[in-house]
Amino acid sequence: MGNKESMKIAKEQRLLEKAEREKKFNRAKTWELAIYPLFGLGHNAFMFLMTLVSYYAAGIVGLGTVIASFVITGSRILDSITDPIIGLIVDKTKGKYGKVRPVAAVGYITMSISTLLLYFTNHLVPDGFGLIYFIILYAIFIIGYTLSGVAANIGNNILTNDPQQRPIFGGLGMIYTMLFYAISTIYLSMYLTGKYGGFSNVGLFKEMTIFTIVLAGITYGLAITAIWSKDRIEYFGAGENSEKIKAKDLWTILKGNRPLQMFVIAMATDKLSMQIAGNQIPKVMLFGIVMGNYAMLGVTQGISMIPNILILFFGIRYAIKFGSKRAYVVATWGCLVSYGLLFLLLWLGDPTQIRMDNMGFMTIAFLVLFLLGGAIRYITSGLVQPMLADVIDYHTYKTNQYAPGIISAVYTFIDKAVSSLQQTFVGLLLAFIGFKTAFPDVNTPYTESIFWMTMFLEFGVLAIAWIASLIAMKFYELDKDRMVEIQEVINSRKQEIKNLDGQQNSATN
User: Please, what sign has the CA dihedral across residues 203, 205, 210, 211?
Assistant: First the structure.
């Protein structure tokens, strides 16, 4: 009887705490919290598709490795200049359809049309116009990708401001994206490359494009439905009390927001390293050349889902309890240790022994470290959006301005300016070791130079970025307790304007 009474009291206490949090914070419903992160899956599906563009541009269109790499870099740098402009326009938009829904729809349509034209027609254009045509379509895609990213970040901010809920949508977003990458990698490495004989057949790119557009269309539609009830002005920062944004505020926002500065340093370096290590070319080099078993990539992606989800759930629970900042720092240390051990294994051991039909020390150790490091890395990535939402609220707290579009654009501006270097970085380094006309593929013979270049691209750049992130987090003040204080202040400002409106209405009556 005593246990039943204790359980009843504990349940009532949890219900009271939940009711109190609902009064204190703008909390999302369970289904909204579960469905909206699908936005990130669709967004990343397009980026995964575009990781193949260097193979298409160099091999199918015939631009060559260095030219293709420089064009991709140039297009992204040019687009990074338009980011603040797009962010400013979105922040000034208060239409009857909200901010998220129309921008997300336009972004999806733009990316769909540009990728269809790119992969279905670019190789048919006469040689003299192929390069110009590629540049135009790639630039259009990046603009659509920017619109999509801004919409996603605004939705993340208005979905919930509860510090206990934000890590949940960040973690769920990573779980959905992780499942997508696992499935799409298997689809690419074990089905499409076999069906079309590698990356030299245009049919592979066409089929992957259709797959991406259909899948992303479903996820964008579901995400728009989930954010529908929150995409209103009362959920934008301080609501009606928010001050207007002006073009001159662009520099002020970056200059006066220390958490944003530290966040940008940490996330931009992480993004650059993740894009380089996640680029399909280093993956081909690691699994296809160093290990001599490219199909192993699909196998590891397939079996990684369960440990990834389990460790990610642990990371979410840790972030809910201790805050996003602390969870990010702990996970970053975990990444450094696990990937450092993985590098030592490949350097001191024999990578060619790593295969599913040879379950010896090398295979088991590789699988454990590869799966562990990859799962912990998902924790750090899953905390990006919750931390960006915190930075947006910090700016509202400091200035009473609601600027999710501009802050997202400032972040993506620097992020793209840095991450756009990844393809040029990869292209130049590979050209330095002899790959000037074509990238390494699964049939390229193994050499020592390929091994060390693979180790640097897969592990070295990651280690450098994680160290930079840990230094930046030393000066990032938005821990869990600080965010509770900030939300209380913002909520009190909203309440003040509501009370003032109520008094004015009473006086009028």
Answer: positive
The reported pLDDT for the residue numbered 214 is: 95
Q: For residue 170, what are the β-bridge partners?
A: none
Half-sphere CA count of 313, side-chain side, radius 13 A: 5
Sign of torsion over alpha carbons 211, 133, 76, 407 = negative
Instruction: Please enumerate in sequence order all residues whose Cβ is within 8 A of that of 408, keeping only pairs 6 or more positions apart, or say none.
Output: 87, 149, 150, 153, 154, 388, 392
CA atoms 34, 419, 415, 317: torsion sign: positive
Nearest to 414 by CA among 233, 306, 234, 253: 253
Q: For residues 113 and 120, is the Cβ–Cβ distance under 8 A?
A: no
Is-contact 316 386, C-beta < 8 A? no
| Distance (Å, whole) CA 80 – CA 151 | 16
CB 365 within 8 A of CB 337: no
Cβ contacts of 178 within 8 Å, gap of 6 or more? 304, 305, 308, 309, 312, 378
Is the Cβ–Cβ distance between 42 and 216 less than 8 Å?
yes
For the packed helices 295-303 and 166-186, what is the interaxial angle rounded to 10 degrees? 150
d(CA 7, CA 51): 52
Beta bridge partners, 243, equal 401
**pLDDT digit string (tens) for 269-312?**
777 777 776 677 888 888 888 888 887 887 777 677 788 888 88
For the segment 204-220, the average pLDDT, to the nearest whole number, is 93
Tell me how far apart the terminal alpha carbons of the chain are, to the nearest angstrom.
57
* 48-59: b (≥16 Cβ within 10 Å) or e: bbbbbbbbbbbb
Q: What is the spatial distance between Cα 448 and Cα 496, in angstroms, rounded to a whole number?
A: 67
| Nearest CA-CA partner of 230 in 181, 159, 315, 303 | 159
What residues contact 25, with CB distance under 8 A and at least 6 apart? Answer: 160, 161, 162, 165, 487, 491
Does residue 32 contact residue 499 with C-beta atoms inside 8 Å?
A: no
Strand partners, 28: none
Phi and psi dihedrals of 501, rounded to 5?
-60, -40
Q: What are phi and psi of 359, to 5 degrees?
A: -85, 60
Q: Which two tokens stand for residue 303?
A: 């079996």
Contact 32, 226 (CB under 8 A): yes
List the structure tokens of 253: 């926002």
Q: Using DSSP, state whether 401 is helix, strand or coil.
A: strand
**pTM of the shown model:** 0.69
pLDDT in tens, 412-432: 777 666 666 776 778 788 888
Spatial distance between the Cα atoms of 314 and 340, rounded to a whole number of angstroms = 22
